[in-house]
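# step 3/5: fold
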Amino acid sequence: MYNIAKTKIIATIGPSSWDKSVLTEMINSGLAIARINSSFANEDEIIRVGKLVREISPRVALMLDTQGSKIRVVNIKDEIEVKEEAVISSNSNTAGIQISYPNVHLYLKPNDLVLLDDGNIELTVTRIEGENVFCRVIQEGRLKPNKTVALPSVRLDFPILSEKDKQSITCALNNDYDFLSVSFVRTKQDIEEIRKFVGQSDIKIIAKIENQEGIDNIDDILCVSDGIMIARGDLGVEIAYEKLPVLQKQLIYRCRTEGKPVIVATQMLESMRENIRPTRAEVSDVANAVMDGTDAVMLSAETSTGKYPVESVQAIQKISKEAESVMQTSKVYGVTDASREVDELCRNACDIFNNADIKGVVVLSNMGKTLPSLSRHRPNVPVWSISNRIKRIRQERIYFGVQSYYIKEFPTDRDEIIESAVDIVFSHGELDLNDKIAIISGSSIRHNSEDATLEIVTVKDVLSR
């Protein structure tokens, strides 16, 4: 039987995990979705890593993360010391620190904050002379090339899609990627623009929440997205860091109410870039994200450039499983993309799972709307989904507690469909003949695609029909 956590693991692939044997071990340790960060990857890498993942396992999903309009330091070749006073400018002829946002001097004013390197270096604007912005250094530090710049006091105008993003997305679409995580989403119009660009593609669009504007517009963004990523790195620079824990809980619950998958990302096991074991604080952080109810947790530098990519996946797997061992079904209220009747059936089904000796639940849904409606309640039994589309199987891997299986062709008779589905789960070692299971399937009434039925059956009775 599968002995993996219900919380799904996303890991960023980079130089530390390019090797086939390393990536294979990561997948065998529970990696569900392989992420490529286009901020550091060109089209050749998007293609190469995609082919490698597919070669190892066609079940593992591929996610492209867009670069977005992040401001960076652009004129530093070697590490420099930033102390006492610093000058920033958009002008390439500046003697100070050049940043990538044009005409930055027109947007800043005295007392505005300027944060470098994810907030590790803090400046405050003192005066502006021409194109030069003079700053007092509040927090000193050593600045490396290409580090980030954040201007939390300023509303900047960014295009949601840069030319590089367009090229990267096109490459991902041509190579059958499953998810597209969009950086620095601020409004629902950002997601709508992405949808226009990808056209008729069935790629799932995940909105990364990384700034205050994204938080302010979360309800509208959630309505037009296929899921949310809580990108705590940039978010923790843009807002006060002490607000992050509560905000994380609020966003997770908000996503669950609508049946949209949610990912907690950034610095989950940051110390494992250098160390083979996580800190106790990181263990608690991962466990709390799991117990908050996230669908997935994501590793970034830990697996892309860190020394211990396999051990990082194994660690987050063990932490997630231990946290899940004390979790109970947690029903939520809200309307999903399924019908209201299906939402009510899935919510009430969880009481049956808790009070009856149910081994697991098989979900049969042509539209794919029942699964998120059920998974959002975090049932305490496995959820098995059956599909005849490989891509849908990969995309369903993002949902908490869901294991999807492939069937080449669905029989036309409903009883035969159920028998085939149970047989698939049984053949994978998930069930014994005497186990009782629940089956949620489409209505038996012809031309009724909105409703669903719930049955409790014994495995041997289904397989002996």
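# step 4/5: annotate
The longest strand covers residues 121-129.
# step 5/5: archive (pending)
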